[in-house]
Amino acid sequence: MYKRLKELREDHDLTQAQISKFLNMSQTGYSKYETGENDIPTKILIELAKFYKTSVDYILELTNEVKPYNKE
Q1: Domain presence at residue 15
Q2: Most-buried pick from 11, 41, 43, 59 (CB within 10 A)?
Q3: What is the 3-state secondary structure (H, E, C) of the chain?
């Protein structure tokens, strides 16, 4: 999942500093999510999925489908 977080960020041409600002946290704190040094809290995982317009399952590598699930 950590590799996928980095890929999503890079695919959107964003820096760790930009994502950390969106999440209201330090760049170092966010960096530890991408390296796997720290586990990602569920709340942050959901925020990232919404931000990237994907599903939590995609970030967690449970699916390769980027498109989020239909809410119906």
Answers
A1: yes
A2: 59
A3: CHHHHHHHHHHCCCCHHHHHHHCCCCHHHHHHHHHCCCCCCHHHHHHHHHHCCCCHHHHCCCCCCCCCCCCC
- One-letter amino acid at 41 equals P
AA letter at 20: S
Q: What is the CATH number of the domain that holds 23?
A: 1.10.260.40
Residues 6+ apart with CB under 8 A from 66: 54, 58
Predicted TM-score (pTM) of this structure: 0.87
* Number of domains into which the chain is organized: 1
> For 31-68, what is each residue's pLDDT tens digit?
999 999 999 999 999 999 999 999 999 999 999 988 88
Buried residues in 40-70 as b, exposed as e (16+ CB within 10 A): beeebbebbbeebebbbebbeeeeeeeeeee
